Inverse folding.
């Protein structure tokens, strides 16, 4: 085996790099080494770059290439390292170019730490080019190896990033070993940033939620090449191109993936002797995955580095490295009664969800998390613009940050017994970050002596001002004549922005062909089918004459318009013209539940989902919308079905808007439909949300049995006579005398189902319905509790870990 034959010893310090003892090339049989404080270095012909042993710790060195000009106040700028993850001992370690053509790095124990794995029959030499490329060539000029083909965290101008190379960040500013962030080409030919952490791995740039073309990228290439030119243009084969802010001829540039996971383009400022950022991939550092580790929050202040902090109840795993994140100081039991939630406002943890649950109420989202033992908390967002809520239960708390413009909150799951101890944390957490107050300027004014010219100019200005006021008044008079046209323009703008508009009576009369096709009627009015000029089908409700002025009517319509839930019918407009009062709703293809109950189209799965969806809609009316609303007429005719049999509660325009103190509510007359009305109406008791709960229970029993609430259920008594019974009493009787679950369910379930239903879920549904129709209102559950009970049953039936699909 060949061995080194020559040792070059240089006793000069870094301040004497450019003396005659510095090297531009080393030849085979030559070694570079570091003994005590002496260094062997290679220098590029223009003196810009050097390569040699670079200190990365106490008596620990890596063979590296660096930029010779030290940045003001900072260390040398390293652009490449051979052995970043295996530093060598400072003494007796050396870089040797063997006669075989192999370049090796050995430590003090004579072990080979790094090598180029090259061979050559002719003699070879190692040179450092002006480009910063360290090149190994033979006498024929054939390149055997070059550092440009093995980048670490930096790309220099004209250096290619290819399908076989990648940039890997360092662990920290002072730790040069390989970090967790990588810039590379994926299998789809896209240039991406990847967080490859201790436990999890995720792509985070471009936004993984975007398809390639939405991110401005193209997968239609196979070259997978990216390059930075000397002018400051970085371009990639996937159509990604950026330009430096100082685009143009510049002495020195470099593209680097920094330890914080951001990719930045640096330009050298010759006068200031420093590097400055001329472009960066991600503007908000806290949006970078894994930046603070698990169970921690990232915050960022412009002009400073990011700041990491543990969540309440957690502590740092490794006091010197945030990438390890934080660990809990508590034990969280699976018992839902021992857990509670701590609100962290405007905090987001993106990724690692059990699933996405749209239009879940807050209570539904909370209870879903409590049902899942490994749920660490949940993200809840509610959009005031579209009225939709979003629920994200979390399996892991990674990628956390706080932003005032984030439209949601995190609810952290903690032991109930520890919750009080975190009150101080939340008080500090919600403080305004800015410490700047109002500063009064100290100014003094001196009155100058009177000036005749100034006085004249002042009088002249007053005269001109008076003339302007007269002109403005005349213009206002002219514009007032166009007020009607302006109102029409505003109306058109309102339609464009919200989709909600005011119709004329003539428009709706034409849309319904003179109110020709009736599709429903009730105590409040008749519903007709109509078609708008844009071919949208609508349901138009023509209200009975109301003893209510236009202002009062419009106020109530305005409130109803803002109510938005996937299980509530959507209002598209209205008409208030003279004595006419009409409401325009979306049209539901399958009509009402009442029209479908006798149809075989409603199988067991559809009926259960209709029951759950109706409960969600009512829970929203009672507890979540801006104005708490009682429906007061829940019945199958007011539960409409869209093309997917998704239920939508309708006709809550008949309801009376309530104050939050329901106990003080009163109605001047009974509302509702016989058979679905709660006892409170009959006995003139205070009306609460429990009247809707009672009606809902009757509707569910009707869906289960296929029998109406008032027509009676015929049963045979002991004497053999046929006796009519009310639906609720009949179901209770069958359950009470049953000897087995299956037997009593079979006696009440709608024959149209043909026995095709889940017995456990059916029993839960009937049990919930019977609780809802208790005579005593306080014994009835709230609608949110109904949703929770049905949701719990659905979770139990998905114990294999799949999502909940109510």
């Amino acid at each position: 085996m060949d061995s080194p034959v020559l040792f070059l010893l240089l006793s000069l310090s870094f301040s004497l790099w450019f003396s005659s003892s510095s090297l531009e090339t080393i030849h085979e049989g030559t070694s570079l080494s570091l003994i005590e404080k002496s260094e062997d270095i290679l220098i590029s012909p223009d003196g810009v770059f050097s390569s040699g042993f670079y200190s990365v710790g106490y008596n620990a060195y890596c063979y590296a290439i660096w930029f010779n000009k030290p940045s003001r106040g900072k260390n040398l700028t390293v652009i490449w390292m051979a052995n970043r993850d295996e530093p060598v001992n400072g003494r007796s370690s050396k870089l040797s170019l063997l006669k075989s053509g192999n370049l090796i790095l050995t430590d003090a124990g004579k072990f080979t730490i790094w090598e180029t794995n090259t061979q050559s029959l002719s003699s070879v030499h190692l040179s450092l080019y002006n480009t910063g490329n360290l090149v190994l060539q033979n006498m024929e000029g054939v390149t055997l190896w070059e550092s440009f083909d093995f980048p670490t965290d930096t790309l220099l101008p004209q250096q290619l990033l290819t399908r076989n190379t990648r940039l890997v960040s360092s662990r920290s500013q002072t730790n040069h070993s390989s970090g967790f962030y990588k810039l590379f080409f994926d299998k789809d030919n896209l240039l991406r940033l990847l967080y490859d952490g201790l436990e999890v791995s995720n792509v985070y740039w471009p936004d993984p939620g975007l398809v390639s073309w939405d991110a401005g990228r193209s997968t239609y290439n196979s070259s997978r090449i990216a390059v930075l030119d000397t002018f400051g243009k970085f371009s990639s084969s996937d159509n990604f191109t950026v330009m430096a802010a100082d685009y143009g001829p510049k002495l020195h540039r470099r593209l680097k993936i920094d330890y914080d996971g951001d990719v930045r383009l640096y330009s050298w400022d010759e006068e200031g002797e420093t590097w400055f950022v001329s472009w960066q991939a991600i503007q908000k550092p806290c949006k970078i995955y894994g930046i603070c580790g698990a169970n921690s929050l990232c915050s960022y202040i412009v002009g400073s580095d990011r700041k990491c902090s543990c969540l309440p109840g957690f502590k740092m795993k490794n006091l010197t490295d945030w990438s390890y994140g934080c660990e809990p100081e508590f034990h969280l039991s699976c018992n839902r009664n021992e857990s509670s939630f701590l609100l962290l406002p405007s905090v987001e943890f993106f990724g690692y969800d059990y699933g996405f649950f749209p239009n879940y109420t807050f209570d539904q989202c909370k209870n879903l998390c409590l049902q899942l033992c490994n749920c660490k908390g949940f993200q809840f967002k509610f959009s005031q613009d579209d009225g939709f809520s979003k629920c994200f239960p979390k399996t892991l708390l990674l990628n956390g940050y706080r932003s005032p413009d984030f439209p949601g909150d995190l609810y952290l799951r903690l032991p109930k017994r520890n919750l009080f101890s975190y009150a101080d944390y939340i008080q500090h957490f919600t403080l305004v970050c800015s410490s700047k107050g109002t500063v009064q300027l100290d100014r003094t004014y001196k009155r100058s002596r009177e000036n005749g010219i100034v006085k004249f100019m002042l009088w002249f200005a007053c005269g001109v001002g008076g003339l302007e006021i007269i002109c403005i008044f005349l213009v206002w008079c002219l514009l007032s004549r166009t007020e009607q046209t302006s109102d029409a323009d505003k109306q058109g703008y309102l339609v464009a922005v919200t989709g909600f508009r005011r119709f004329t009576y003539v428009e709706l009369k034409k849309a319904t062909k003179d109110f020709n096709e009736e599709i429903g009627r009730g105590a409040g009015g008749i519903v007709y089918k109509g078609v708008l000029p844009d071919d949208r089908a609508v349901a138009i409700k023509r209200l009975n004459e109301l003893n209510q002025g236009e202002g009062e009517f419009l106020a109530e319509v305005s409130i109803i318009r803002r109510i938005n839930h996937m299980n509530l019918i959507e209002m598209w407009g209205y008409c208030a013209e003279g004595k006419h009062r009409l409401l325009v709703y979306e049209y539901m293809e399958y009509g009402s539940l009442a029209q479908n109950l006798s149809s075989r189209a409603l199988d067991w799965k559809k009926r259960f989902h209709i029951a759950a969806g109706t409960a969600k809609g009512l829970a929203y009316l009672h507890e979540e919308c801006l104005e708490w609303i009682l429906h007061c007429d829940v019945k199958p005719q007011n539960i409409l079905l869209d093309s997917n049999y998704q239920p939508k509660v309708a006709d809550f325009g008949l309801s009376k808007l309530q104050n939050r103190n329901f106990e003080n509510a009163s109605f001047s007359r009974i509302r509702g439909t016989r058979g679905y009305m709660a006892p409170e109406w009959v006995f003139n008791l205070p009306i609460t949300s429990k009247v809707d709960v009672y009606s809902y229970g009757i509707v569910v029993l009707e869906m289960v049995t296929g029998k109406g609430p008032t027509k009676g259920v015929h049963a045979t008594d002991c004497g053999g006579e046929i006796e009519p019974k009310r639906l609720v009493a009949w179901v209770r009787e069958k359950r009470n005398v049953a000897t087995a679950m299956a037997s009593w369910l079979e006696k009440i379930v709608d024959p149209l189902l043909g026995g095709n239903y889940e017995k456990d879920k059916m029993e839960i549904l009937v049990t919930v319905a019977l609780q809802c129709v208790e005579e005593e209102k306080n014994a009835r559950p709230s609608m949110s509790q109904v949703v929770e009970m049905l949701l719990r049953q659905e979770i139990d039936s998905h114990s294999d870990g799949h999502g909940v699909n109510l």
